[in-house]
């Protein structure tokens, strides 16, 4: 009887999601997870937006839909057309899903350094994947420029241009930002996340700044090898890119148009070393049951650092961009961790998770 009552009470506490219209209707409205153990340990209130719950598995589903909707609204693509993008992963996966759901062809140019899992997944989703040599953005053979050129060479095709098409940041301004504001009841002292295109940080940051009247602090979180922290800290000096990180999908060598829409309002930036990100990744798996990619772990480290700056009891939100599934052969492999000099930083009680 008691267990039946408990079960009924649990059922009642769920709010029922409405039936949604196709794959794209399932994008967004993700939970905001209170990271309980971490918050209790640190004395802050840390929240992670569960973007891995998007139907294509990452925060980039929102951008993919936003970019395609933008092209449709402007009449740039007609039924049966082709969507072309240069991407190393999650945006391509989001686009491939949205293209299937809306009847478009999808062509993805990607650097030939990417994992076979990602190439396979894109092909399973019906995308025409074109791996090209991994060369710098300044080189005309860079995957982005090749994507643009190809889109221009065929009829009824668009290059979605995730880095410099601000429909990307706008998608977060009208969905991710408002969701976080509502979920926290507007009681949010800080927000931080890392950037690839800058769409998430710019869109969410702009919305939270506007709603809070500038009170919510917005900080950029950067991996090693990115130029953005030094750009922000130096008041706008762009250094040459050097170094690398185990995190995928984040870090930049230039100020994209998406980031440019918000960069003057960013309050500060941190660079988070890989050692801290990987330990957080394992800790959150152990204590919160979260299985997340390395950019998400970096974001959570930054959220704690921002909370430290903002003071006792402060409330900070960040983004859990995707799950570890796309990276598990690396992040949970002893050999791979050792090759990056990271095996030793995992505390002994967490080493059991490195099972590959
Ligand atoms: N994390 C992961 C795993 C990603 O793939 C990306 C996008 N490349 C980001 C974070 C950063 O998102 P944005 O492009 O909105 O800056």
From TrEMBL:
Molecular functions per Gene Ontology: cysteine synthase activity
EC number(s) from the headed UniProt entry: 2.5.1.47
Cofactors: pyridoxal 5'-phosphate
Keyword list, A-Z: Amino-acid biosynthesis, Cysteine biosynthesis, Mitochondrion, Pyridoxal phosphate, Transferase, Transit peptide
Reactions that this protein is recorded to catalyse: O-succinyl-L-serine + hydrogen sulfide = L-cysteine + succinate; O-acetyl-L-serine + hydrogen sulfide = L-cysteine + acetate
SUPFAM superfamilies: Tryptophan synthase beta subunit-like PLP-dependent enzymes
Functional pathway: Amino-acid biosynthesis; L-cysteine biosynthesis; L-cysteine from L-serine: step 2/2
Domain Tryptophan synthase beta chain-like PALP: 24-322
GO CC list: mitochondrion
Pfam families: PALP (PF00291)
Cited function: Catalyzes the conversion of O-succinyl-L-serine into cysteine, the last step in the cysteine biosynthesis pathway. Can also use O-acetyl-L-serine.
Family: Belongs to the cysteine synthase/cystathionine beta-synthase family.
Protein known as: Cysteine synthase 1
Organism: Leucocoprinus leucothites
């Amino acid at each position: 009887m008691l267990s039946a009552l408990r079960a009924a009470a649990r059922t009642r506490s769920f709010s029922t999601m409405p039936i949604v219209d196709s794959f794209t209707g399932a994008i967004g409205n993700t939970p905001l997870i209170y990271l309980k153990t971490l918050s209790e340990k640190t004395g802050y209130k840390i929240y992670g937006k569960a973007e891995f719950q998007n139907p294509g598995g990452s925060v980039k589903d929102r951008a993919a839909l936003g970019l395609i909707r933008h092209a449709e609204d402007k009449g740039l693509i007609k039924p049966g057309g082709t969507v072309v993008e240069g991407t190393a992963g999650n945006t391509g996966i989001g686009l491939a899903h949205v293209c299937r759901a809306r009847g478009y062809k999808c062509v993805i140019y990607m650097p030939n350094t990417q994992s076979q899992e990602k190439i396979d997944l894109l092909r399973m989703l019906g995308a025409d994947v074109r791996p090209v040599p991994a060369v710098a953005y300044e080189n005309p053979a860079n995957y982005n420029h090749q994507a643009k050129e190809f889109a221009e060479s065929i009829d009824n095709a668009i290059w979605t241009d995730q880095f410099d098409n601000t429909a990307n940041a706008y998608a977060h301004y009208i969905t991710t930002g408002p969701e976080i504001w509502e979920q926290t009841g507007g009681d949010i002292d800080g927000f931080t996340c890392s950037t690839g295109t800058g769409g998430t940080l710019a869109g969410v940051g702009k919305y939270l700044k506007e709603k809070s009247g500038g009170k919510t602090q917005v900080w950029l979180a950067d991996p090693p090898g990115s130029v953005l922290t030094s750009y922000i800290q130096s008041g706008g000096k762009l250094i040459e890119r050097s170094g690398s990180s185990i995190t995928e999908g984040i870090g930049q060598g230039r100020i994209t148009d998406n980031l440019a829409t918000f960069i003057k309002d960013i309050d500060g930036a941190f660079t988070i070393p890989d050692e801290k990100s990987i330990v957080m990744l394992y800790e959150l798996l152990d204590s919160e049951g979260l299985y997340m990619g390395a950019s998400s772990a970096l974001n959570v480290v930054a959220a704690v650092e921002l909370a430290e700056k903002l003071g006792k009891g402060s409330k900070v939100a960040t983004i859990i961009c995707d799950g570890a599934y796309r990276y598990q052969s690396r992040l949970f492999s002893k050999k791979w961790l050792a090759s990056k000099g990271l095996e030793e930083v995992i505390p002994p009680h967490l080493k059991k998770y490195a099972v590959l």
